[in-house]
Fold this protein.
Amino acid sequence: MMRSLLTGAGVRLVVLALLVVAVLAVPLSAGEKKESLAGGLALVPANGSGFITIRVGDLYRSDASKAFREKLAKAQPKFAEKFKKNSGLDIDQIARVTVVLGNDAERPPLVIIAMSKAVDRDKVRDAQMPKSEERKHGGKTYYTRKEAKERDQALHFASDRVLVLGSIKDVEQFLDRKVDSKGKGPLRAALGTAAGKVPLVGGLNLQGGFFGSIKKKLGEKPPPEVKEMLPLLEAKSGVATMVADKDIRLNASLTFADKDAAAEGEKAAKAIQKLLLTQISRGQEGLEEALKNEKLGELERYLVTRTKPFLSKVEQGIKNAKIERRKDRGLVASTTIKANAADATLLLASSLFVAVASERGPKPEKPKPEKSKAN
């Protein structure tokens, strides 16, 4: 269960959500109240590539998620029990989950899980990483499977309430990081907002290593549909934010070397806007197909049904997005989506269910070979 956070569809969905924020994401007010970066947020580097954080506990217990909880209990009455068996964690004690982008776009991001109560480290380690071994790095401890390589999973306990999951290489880089006590960096404002009561916050720094690795990878031989979007990565600085509570407010602000580069960046932003609308249309078609699947369970059907109107709201928000030049070298993009944080979280969940459901769909029967007739 928890291992799936680091591989497969879960990571792809998180990265997709972050990339959407990068293009169409309201600037955070400088006068907003700053709160302490608890719940693992202090571990997120303000000068890093990006993060997305969800107050899972608040959303799970909210009135907006009541129907989901009831259907989950009916469809999978032993879900909490199985979750604890596979992860070593009590699902109702998960306070916050934060996904942190590393320096390599080809590796899964780090996942920071903050609990409301102290965990039993031995039980968590045994559940998520059976037959693990203890390793030291820079005087700090992490766990991984014996004979594991740098891309294999590692587990680090930042405290009795906060654990970090990621590849060995990324966890070691995480342990090497220099913590700025003042939290200076492009993501500082977004982290300050996340420390409050907002259910879902995301932030991106286009100068981070993650986007540098994308630029390097795509620059070698970019696909035609991606080539026209690359000028955005030429920005000298760029920050995007997402703040989701009663609605979803998205903003991106970029600065380029000169006005010509800014003009190319504007074209690239509009190209991505067009691409997103195309992908949403395909997503809606995929949902319609999923609903035709007779093996789709009640919970999955509920999630898919909830996702359809949400996608329509996202589509409208992207259509209404403002992409404007500021002075000679600046570019800003902003929009507001008339949907709430609970809907956004359910979208991620339903996408996972759709992926599983489509794999369970009936397979076409192979034609039986005709029996040869006796002469």
User: Anything to note?
Assistant: The chain has one domain: 3-178+186-359.
